Structures are given as C-alpha cells and as structure tokens.
Amino acid sequence: AGVFTHDPGFTSTSSCESAITFIDGDKGELLHRGYPIDQLAEKSHYLEVCYLLLYGELPTAAELEHFETTITRHTMIHEQMHNFFRGFRRDAHPMATMVGVVGAMSAFYHDSTDITDERQREIASHRLIAKMPTIAAMAYKYSIGQPFVYPRNDLDYASNFLRMCFAVPAEEYVVDPVLSRAMDRIFTLHADHEQNASTSTVRLASSSGANPFACIAAGIACLWGPAHGGANQACLEMLKEIGTVDRIPEYIARAKDKNDPFRLMGFGHRVYKNFDPRAKVMKQSADEVLDLLGVENNPLLQVAKELERIALQDDYFAEKKLFPNVDFYSGIILEAMGFPTSMFTPIFAVSRTVGWISQWKEQLADPAMKIGRPRQLYMGATLRDYVEIEDR
Ligand code: CMC
Question: Which ranges does the record mark as transmembrane (predicted)?
Fold first, then answer.
C-alpha cells in the first residue's frame, strides 16, 4: 500500500484485460478479434465489423441480417431532440453539438440507461451505433442552414450517412457506389483501436457506473483534440497551408526544430513505430475516390504524396520512427467527397462509437472491474498554517 509507479501519459500501464483489438506497433499490425484490418477493409463492411467487435465472431448471414435490421430500426432520433440542434449557434463546431446531443440522449431514452440490465445495455449499444450518423449529419445540416434529412432504412449505413449529409429536398440524390464504399472503409478503418485516449476516457467514465450516453459523450469530447481524432482536420488544414510542393522543405524543417511547436499532422503514433496499416488502405481509397471524381491531379494530394516521400527519407523521422498514420489520407478523401474540415472529426466519432461501445460492454462484464482512480506524484507546498487575509 502507498507504493505506486509514476507513468505520465500511461506509456507503460495496462488498464484492463481485453479480447477485442490487438496492435503490434513494431510490425504495423492491427487485428480485430484476430482478423487483420486489411482483410476486413477489403472483404467485409462496417456493420459486419461492428458485429464482430461487439460479439467476438463474424456473423452468419442470418445473424448479420438480424443485426442490420435492428440497427436500421433505431436510426431516427426522438423528434423533440431536434430542438437541441436549434439551440446551438449555426457556427458551432459539429463536435461541440455532438457532445451535447449525445450526452442528452440519457434524458430521452430512459429505458436504456440501467447498466445493470443486460437488455438495456444491448438497446443502448444499438441506439448509439444507429443514431450517431443521424446526429452527425444533423449537426452538419444545421451548420449550413439546410433542412435535416431523415434517415432512409433501405440504404446501407454509409450510403444513408452520405445522403443525410448531401441530399436536399428539392432534388433526387443518388449515392455513387465508389463513394459509398470509400465512406464505409473510413468507418471500418476507424472502428476500434484498443486503449487510445477516447476509449480510455469512455472506460474511466463508465467505471463510476455512469450511463452509456454520458460515457460516449465523454469519449467524443476526448476525441476532439488535435493529438487524437482532431488530427484529420488539422492534417488537411496543414496541407492547405503548405499549398505547393516547393514549400514542403520549410515545413519539414519546422517539424524537426525543437524550438518550434509545429508537428507534421498525420505523422507519428504512440503505438505504431512502423507504417499504420490503416494508412495503407486509406491511401488506396484516396486514389480511387480522386480518380472517380476526376481530381487525381488535386494539389492537396500532390502535396501529401510529396510530403510523405520526403519525410520517409528524412533521418529525423526515421530515428523517431514517425510514419504516416490513418489520418494522413482520410482528410483528402473526405474533402474530395465534399465534406468541410469541421466534419472530419465527427465522422471519426461516428466510426469509433462501436469501438467505445464494445469496450464499454467488455468492461461491464469484467468481474475485476473497479472504479478508475489514478494516484499522483504530489509536487506542491508542504504543510503550512493558514494566513489571515490582512497578513498576506
Ligand atoms: N512531427 C514532428 N515530430 C514529432 C511528431 C510529428 N508529427 N510526432 C512525434 N514527434 C517527435 C516528438 O517531438 C518527440 O521528439 P523528442 O523525443 O525529441 O522530444 C518524439 O517524436 C516522440 O513524440 P511524443 O510526443 O513523445 O510521442 P507520443 O507517443 O506522446 O505522441 C502523437 C504520439 C500521435 C500524439 C504524436 O506523434 C503527434 O502529435 N502526431 C501528430 C498528431 C497526429 O497525427 N495524431 C493522430 C494520431 S492517429 C489517430 C488517433 O489516434 O486519433
């Protein structure tokens, strides 16, 4: 008792036992329930991966159909929740809106907040996975002053999301299958990533017995930061700021300068000390989408490709084992699809919801679960007597 290790940033602390996701950072390997991410991105699709993460096995055809029907049934949000969106300023960041709206779900869905009831936990997970795209799309529509578009349950998860973001009542909207596939891949590649900052936040919030909607709202808040989910927005803004290939060396030099806080966004990872396996698939997707949209000569992509090439040849990045991560290419795809940068992190939040939920469920089922309560290394004043205000 009283003896503990000091580990800022938890670089060498395991917080739980988990059977969901495995990462070998040196090899650049990511497995969900044992299946490699590149196989899942290639052969599977987002809702099937959701099932795998939640229940541990790939579904049979009947199980998948049942799961998809269940999720589809929950895609609408309570009509009264529309008022929440209208309470925000139009220029609010969609992540700010989502933290509020998702947290407020516990005020609406009382029949799924009792965490001791397995059925309620199940309903809460389905509701969150189903409603997150609707909430993210509504936050976007509200920010651009367009009417909300209700979900359509005959569409797959990714196509439905694209339609809710880009359709307007005055016109027919047809989702291009290449864009739908690329959207699905972005969801799939971000679905889970073991004990990252937002997942650990969800687990810590849940360790007190908080309800699932409150826990996921906490995860969204944590994801927002530029060192985590906010990196995709920050990366695209950086590529735009660099603008042309000839300015790359200046930014590489800044990233290497110890006295300059600038970092190459979309580079480096706490766990991967090799290529992020998700970045490889994302790069291929970026090529497909830009090809389809006829923007393969997109200046941002040229800057991104050249930046990657130069950085990978640079000793600084080699020594520190800094490689492109998943967010290096996702922003280019989303921008080409027509999303503003402020929607990049909300899209990450939609994708990661299943990871948060799977980890939350696993934690609640763990008999060893206790409240998360780190200690500290106290560095403040030692014991001293109170000083009256007139004597200070
Ligand atoms: N550009 C330049 N230098 C870097 C970078 C970078 N992107 N990333 C790390 N370094 C340097 C850093 O300055 C440090 O140098 P030194 O040892 O001389 O002090 C060394 O590499 C180790 O960095 P660290 O900050 O101690 O490593 P960390 O594990 O705490 O940070 C990270 C990981 C992802 C926060 C960091 O690499 C970073 O800030 N990257 C840019 C932001 C980014 O792309 N984030 C997305 C991560 S993937 C998606 C997600 O998980 O949400």
Answer: none
Same domain, 144 and 291: no
Structural domain contains residue 221: yes
3-state secondary structure (DSSP) of residue 335: helix
Determine whether the shortest distance from the Cβ of 320 to ligand 1 is under 6 A: yes
Rounded to 5°, the CA angle 33-179-37 comes to 15
Please report the atom of ligand 1 found closest to the CA of residue 270. Answer: 29
List the structure tokens of 207: 């360790």
**How far, in Å, is the centroid of ligand 1 from the Cα of 269?**
6
Q: Is the CB of 265 under 6 A from ligand 1?
A: yes
Task: Please tell me the residue having the least CA distance from ligand 1 atom 40.
Answer: 268
Q: Is residue 278 in contact with ligand 1, taking CB distance under 6 Å? A: no
42/118 same-domain check:
yes
In a domain, 11, yes or no: no
Q: What does the pLDDT look like over 294-342, one tens digit per residue?
A: 766 778 888 988 999 999 999 999 999 999 888 888 988 998 899 999 9
CATH number at residue 327: 1.10.230.10
ipTM: 0.94
Domain check: are 304 and 352 in the same one?
Answer: no
The tens digit of pLDDT for each residue in 12-67 reads 999 999 999 999 999 999 999 999 999 999 999 999 999 999 999 999 999 999 99
Tell me the pTM.
Answer: 0.92
> C-alpha distances in angstroms, 150 versus 68, 70, 123, 166, 381?
18, 17, 21, 12, 57
